[in-house]
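Attaching the record inline, Q. Sequence:
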Amino acid sequence: MTEPRQQALEYVRRNRDRFLEELKDFLRIPSVSTDPAHRADVERAAAWVAERLRAAGAPHVEIMPTDGHPVVYGEAPAARADAPTVLVYGHYDVQPPDPLEEWESGPFEPTVRGENLYARGASDMKGQVMATIAAFEAVARSGPLPVHVKFLIEGEEEIGSPSLPAFLAAHADRLRASISLNPDAGMIAPDLPTITYGLRGLAYFELRIYGPAHDLHSGLYGGVVHNPAQVLCELIAGMHDAEGRVTLPGFYDRVRPLSEEERAELARLPMGEDFYLRNTGAPALWGEAGYTPVERATARPTLEVNGLLAGFTGPGAKTVLPASAMAKISMRLVPDQDPDEVYEQLRRYLEERAPRTVRWELIRMAGVRASLTDRRHPAVQALSQALEMVWGRRPVFKREGGTIPIVTQLQELLGVESVLTGFGLPDDRFHAPNEKLHLPTWARGIEALTLFFYNYGG
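Structure, as predicted:
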């Protein structure tokens, strides 16, 4: 190991306790982005990040306004002009802590119990932001930077990043980079370093079915007027066939098939049937025939009903034929699927299947493309080597079933790919009471990120 690398790792180990105390200070700020009552706290968190970047060694840091909460931007040049540029993405906002009564300690009173640090934002993602800043500081204090480093730390991720696309477009030249490092993806287990190279996209809709002009007495009109709730249920039931495949016309036309090599890599993940049964409490699994559970959950497209509403749902009985019914429907998309095309596919399905006894309305609510990073990208390889050096084992590569809009936005608006990792664990309870961060994994993560900067620059 070269001298600057060793010096940087020793710096991390000497300052680990200080980094933890600084993270606790960060976590004490209730930067809940969705609540206007916390706007001053959100701004305080942005100021904290900016000051911490300056202290870490970034010579240029500024808090930049958006239509919503501000973005913290920082720059630190490498010793070599031709060195690659790493754009570090993160967010300093957090979810609301409710329900408060379920917390064992205050959500904004960071508390260590055993090997875990408990607080809102500990894992998602203030702990990950602090890990990246700590790694950057260690490298900056141990000699010339091997890569140009830029920071983009936003304050609206937990509300869907509504101001970010306009910000990226307005500052595209400043944000150009060779790769984006995004530590918001997490690990499968403490002993299993993980790189996420694929994210599914999202298409979200609200489907409304209208029947009579008002609710009707089901005894007087049942069997005469078509019940919108029944129509909705039948339409939804027809959206999958007996093999678990989505039946929308053309839905699979653009779906990129999984290669045998990629299926073999996904098979390395300890995420078999037992994993999903244990983590869900479901009596049995279900899904598209011909694919393993992890393939269905991360690399195949899906259609899910997220909510249903119709008629009388209170306690007791009320014999009503509802005037309308509504369903929330989401689809997770894979590479090459287009949210606009999926919308048209759903419209065609409804045009073909919906009876003339009702009218319907389809509302588009969200659309994000899937993303896929080449596992042979030099930055991915640099991170893989860094994780293996710290953990002593080759990392696993996984696709994530969810969606991180910033990854697609950076691809489409700036042409910048992302390498995703992170040191949160599946049981960290992010977005739930008693959110936690596993401190030994976090400490290893700081060392791995430190080595990543050297590997990618070297």
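Residues 145 and 198 are 29 Å apart (CA to CA). The chain has a mean pLDDT of 96.

More tomorrow.
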